[in-house]
Specification:
The chain is mostly beta strands. It has one domain. Strands 6-7-1-9 form a four-stranded antiparallel sheet, with no helix packed on it. A three-stranded antiparallel sheet has the order 3-2-8, with no helix packed on it. It has a two-stranded antiparallel sheet with strand order 4-5. Strand 2 and strand 3 form a beta hairpin. The two termini are 22 Å apart.
Length: 131
């Protein structure tokens, strides 16, 4: 995605929107790493994401029951039934024609993974954090 399609001088967050099947496997150990950034000189945000965490119902304040290993980002249940997890944030300076790059990888263990249904990635401005 070209950053020219986004508002300049704005912080954005990228969210993976997904579901897990009952037989989802391979997303906990080790957890995947997400990176969000642009092809230009901007910063690349990297963090561990916990796709395999248990999620409580929305009426329980979207609280997550963390496993023994703490992750930087946790999935939240959306009202439409999908889960979302923040993959990272970036600042769109504007004026450039850079490409936005979003990655979710796990290459340390090479374990088989199954049961992840991806709806898409949402790019949304963050609230009250513009530079």
């Amino acid at each position: 995605m070209s950053t020219s399609m986004l508002s300049p001088k704005t912080n954005y967050a990228a969210y993976l929107v997904f579901k897990r099947t009952d037989r989802a496997y391979g997303f906990d150990d080790p957890p995947p790493r997400a990176s969000v950034g642009t092809t230009g000189v901007g910063e690349v945000h990297q963090q561990t994401v916990g796709l395999g965490l248990s999620v409580m119902e929305p009426n329980q304040h979207d609280q997550i029951v963390p496993p023994p290993q703490q992750h930087a980002s946790h999935p939240k249940q959306r009202e439409d039934g999908w889960l979302e997890i923040e993959l990272g944030q970036f600042f769109n300076e504007g004026g450039e024609n850079d490409e936005l790059q979003i990655r979710l990888t796990e290459v340390e263990a090479g374990n088989v993974k199954t049961g992840l249904i991806v709806e898409g990635i949402e790019i949304m401005p963050t609230k009250g954090q513009d530079r």
